[in-house]
Design brief:
The protein has 223 residues and is mainly alpha-helical. 52% of the residues lie in helices and 4% in strands. It has three domains: 3-65, no CATH class; 73-158, no CATH class; 170-222, no CATH class.
């Protein structure tokens, strides 16, 4: 468990006292020379470490290492989500572990719709080739690479100010009209009812359409 995950789970009240000690032991093994880390790791010698003492030493570790604990749950959660995607791209965690965690977030109704890209990916990965819907441009035979490509795209989207319910919307590439018509369909594009452009209204549940959306925003920012 790295610090970002530790910080999130601390605010999410999902940490046991030994989790702090295990974190310190990991840093000690990795070569940390911080005295507070050594002190926290030494708590593993105790059969029942005192929770308040461990927490106090952990705060000393944070101070000595120059780390920052996010002040809100939302900030900690966002940092954790980004960290998971970055770590799978850097091959520090297994792709299926990343997918599993993202699906867990997607299944929480309190989280934004953008996490639904992961449930769509999981469904397509489990479908036979003739039943793939939203991720047909990915080589789903290579699940690891498909997950990494989704993580890379997700990072771009997660940093954006997206339309409500995105990606479960239709968005016109010409006039930016947004429609929340049913998106669970194999229809990739349709004519825009606002500007009448043919096949300009794109179903954002499709990986290819989200890629086009990201690229168009990048081009407009560079213009």
């Amino acid at each position: 468990m790295d610090f970002i995950e530790l910080a999130f789970k601390r605010l999410d009240r999902r940490l046991a006292t030994n989790d702090y000690i295990d974190w310190a032991n990991g840093l000690l093994v990795a070569g940390s020379e911080a005295s507070s880390i050594a002190e926290l790791a030494s708590c593993s010698w105790e059969p029942n470490p005192d929770a308040e003492l461990v927490d106090r030493i952990f705060r000393s570790c944070v101070s000595e290492l120059g780390l920052t604990i996010p002040s809100t749950w939302e900030d900690a959660f966002s940092a954790y989500v980004v960290d998971i995607c970055n770590r799978v791209l850097q091959r520090e965690i297994q792709p299926l572990d990343c997918l599993s965690k993202m699906i867990e977030f997607a299944e929480d109704d309190e989280n934004s719709f953008i996490f639904s890209v992961w449930t769509d990916l999981a469904k397509d990965l489990s479908n036979p080739p003739d039943e793939i819907v939203f991720n047909d441009v990915l080589d789903l035979r290579n699940s690891s690479e498909s997950i990494r490509k989704t993580a890379s795209q997700f990072l771009e989207l997660y940093a954006m100010d997206l339309p409500a319910r995105f990606p479960q919307v239709w968005k016109c590439k010409e006039c930016n009209e947004v429609s929340d018509d049913e998106t669970y369909t194999d229809e990739i594009a349709r004519s825009c009812p606002a500007c009448k452009s043919a096949f300009a209204l794109k179903n954002m549940r499709f990986f290819r359409n989200r890629n086009e959306y990201c690229n168009s925003l990048l081009r407009s920012n560079l213009a």
